# Entry
Amino acid sequence: MNRLEKKFLQQLRDRQLVAEGDHVLAAVSGGPDSMALLCLLCAVAPVVPCRISAAHCNFQLRGEESLGDEGFVREQCAIRGVECFSVRFDTAAASAAGKKSLEETARELRYEWFSSLLEEHGMTKIATGHHVSDNAETMLFNLFRGTSLLGLKGIRAMHGRVIRPLLLLGKGEILDYLNEKSIPFRTDDSNFGIDYDRNFIRNRVIPLVEERFPHKLLPSLQRLSEQAGELQAFLEAYFERLTISRPGLSFRQGWLDARELKKLSVFEQKEIFKRALQESGATADAAMLQRLVSLLNSQPGRKIVVSGSLVVAWKGNRLCFLQSSP
# Structure
């Protein structure tokens, strides 16, 4: 194994991303990142040991180029003796029907299909080619949309059954590896435009900041991402203990004890409200959390409408989360 393959293997072990006997499904688009992921997994598979399969999504958004990507991935997998699954989606139609962006629609279609493959074939992990620059893009994208502090955690190395083994590798390292190993890849010209928000961040925002502050932005964002992730883990454990020790804050019965809530800091109140909203299937944005804090600081008898079907009403000593009839 060369230097990068050894570094990759160490990441798998240090972060416990892949274990002996795992069956890993690699998401392979044919681009440089996913081809590096496929080849790195194949290089370390005998050492782990684990089984590697590949999955390719044809979103049918680029005509003949999309068909070319599909054929290329199948060919490269065959060369390496890797079982390849592929699927074609009418992404544009699904996007229009769901009234969602093409990006969001493609992501949902992709992961739903990946999950079905895992269940059908007894696979244990889904590996994607996200690297350090992708994490920076995600953090900035979330920041510009008005995320909370914990939203700056970015992409996690492991989330459920999804793993991102390249997350601590830079784009330069990936391209150098492909060049050294003479690994072919496909180029999607749409990635170089600025029509999509993420592309604008990737191709305009990050290069501009990097030009002014060389080699500063990506490492700084990566440290912030890791710290936000550590903070989230701490808070999850803290609030689990808090809700166990104070039953009135557990939301088991669909209500929260107003007296117990008032003993907490505003930050703790918002975190408790956020969990209650999430369990109720509602969006927990900053504006709604502030409205709930204001409700708590008003008086019994008041209520606020959270969504078309969810109302939070102050009854007696309780803030009750009530589903209203249509």
